[in-house]
Amino acid sequence: MDALDVHVEGERLRLLAGRALFWPARSRLMLADLHLGKGDILRAAGIPVPSGGTRADLARLDALLAATGARELWILGDFLHGRRGARVDAAWRAWRHAHADCAVAVIAGNHDRALDAAAAGVDALADATVDGPFVFRHAPAAGGPGRFVVCGHVHPVVRLPGLPGRHPAFWRRSGVLVLPAFSAFTGGHLLPPRECWVACTGGMLVDHRPSTCA
User: Fold this and answer.
1) Which domain holds residue 165?
2) Is residue 102 in a domain?
3) pLDDT in tens, 59-79
4) Residue 100 domain flag
5) Are 154 and 179 in contact (CB under 8 A)?
6) Where are the alpha helices (DSSP H) in the chain?
7) 103 part of a folded domain
8) Of 43, 176, 200, 204, which shows the fewest CB atoms inside 10 Å?
9) Is this prediction's pTM over 0.85?
10) Could you give the residue ranges of the DSSP H alpha helices within 115-185?
11) Which of 48-62, 78-92, 122-136 has the highest mean pLDDT?
12) Where residue 14 sits, what CATH number does that domain have?
């Protein structure tokens, strides 16, 4: 399966194998940890990493908007990885122009100190923005009475039997859903098997619900 519907606090949310979350009631696509420009920053520091990561991530985002028909995009922190270079700026401007009819909003994360929301063509949201039964944040924290937290920051990953490497995952905890890092070029926090998670691998989802799952 490439999508999984879950019901949280009376709302239907759709987990997508493309490492994003869709809220049909708001026609809103949500993701975390896009980290635009990370490759450029590492290459500028003399670290030999492949180019093209920004273009590939934005192409994946194109596909998710087309598949969901989302009218809104919320990025839950770390939209940037640091100061963008000219190539990253141009790629984002082209993407934003192509999707001018989609409202884009960003909750600033710990890597977003250089973010100029107006220049990027996005709306700035406060951390701990409340909408319906949810609190949207960058990093996990308590949402308050009756509020379910949706966030990023942690970059959850898991190991899957018979498959090499580590795979991004949605991490479901009591009162919290941590989204996988959207960027294909990130590290990750390895989850133990006792945790409740849904892994993203090869365009498919793997749902893992042990008896200890909250």
Assistant:
1) 3-208
2) yes
3) 999 999 999 999 999 999 899
4) yes
5) no
6) 38-44, 53-68, 86-98, 117-120
7) yes
8) 204
9) yes
10) 117-120
11) 122-136
12) 3.60.21
